[in-house]
Design goal:
Helix content is 58%, strand content 7%. The chain folds into two domains: 2-152, no CATH class; 161-245, no CATH class. The strands form two sheets. It has a two-stranded antiparallel sheet. Helix 8 packs antiparallel against helix 9 and helix 9 crosses helix 10 (230-245). The protein has ten helices and four strands, in the order ββαααβαααβαααα.
């Protein structure tokens, strides 16, 4: 487990994934890629001009690279670091600072996976396995180059404040708030916190929740009453803010 410092100077602890869980997740992803490659190859063979061996070899190589580099890049970009294998194993790729990855992070990871970690120079995954074993944070070469780390997460429960829905019983109270005074950047920080609160340790979650609730209250002039949990307060404010934006 490692610690990062947010822009609010609040320490957050992330649970890094280790070789075993990452290996299983990668095996699941690879199985999907292999199945897709075989199906695509069968289709290619049926459409390929007869006796054009050089064209067939070229297209097969391009297709292989697309499956091993292009597909993982696309999936990790669109899912914010959660391929199907990682989803099943409860893992996610994030930046070193704990933030969501972007296209460039996913691309660097995929290129490194193809050329260094697994295939071209990777000795069928030996490089990735050795690097992950000796890394304090369980990183492979692609993680070091991209500035990312794979962490263990838990799936959010239905009704959790991370879904940014109005908590039961607070709609009338929130309707009386002047939520437009909450700055967009603060609202974004609150949204990111609520969406990822389940990934934090209890102490970090409590500390950051109280800090954000205090900042929101400073703008609204109204804070949560003693019986109101800070996360419910934040969820109510954000849900009301979204409701008014949709009017």
């Amino acid at each position: 487990m490692s610690q990062i410092i947010t822009g609010d100077a609040v320490p957050l602890e992330l649970r890094e994934a280790r070789l075993a869980s990452r290996g299983v997740a990668y095996a699941l992803d690879l199985m999907i890629v292999v199945i897709g490659f075989i199906i695509g190859l069968i289709l290619f063979v049926g459409l390929m001009p007869e006796r054009d061996l050089s064209l067939a070899q070229t297209l097969t190589l391009v297709y292989l690279i697309a499956m091993l580099v292009g597909l993982p890049t696309l999936v990790e970009t669109l899912s914010s670091g959660r391929s199907l294998g990682k989803l099943i194993m409860g893992l996610r790729v994030v930046r070193d600072d704990g933030g969501p990855i972007r296209f460039r992070h996913a691309l660097v990871r995929s290129l490194s996976g193809f050329f260094v970690d697994f295939w071209a120079l990777g000795l069928f995954g030996a490089v990735a396995a050795i690097t992950s074993l000796i890394s304090p944070r369980g990183k492979r070469v692609g993680d070091y180059l991209a500035g990312t780390v794979v962490i263990r997460v838990r799936a959010p429960r239905a009704g959790h404040p991370g879904w940014i829905t109005m908590p039961d019983g607070y709609a009338e109270w929130a309707a009386g708030l002047n939520v437009r005074v909450v700055p967009d950047d603060l609202a974004l920080s609150v949204r990111q916190f609520l969406g990822r609160a389940h990934e934090l340790t209890l102490s970090a979650r409590t500390s950051l929740g109280r800090r954000l609730a205090g900042e929101v209250a400073a703008h609204l002039g109204i804070g949560p009453d003693p019986s109101m949990h800070p996360e419910l307060y934040l969820a109510a404010v954000l849900a009301e803010r979204r409701r008014r934006a949709e009017l």
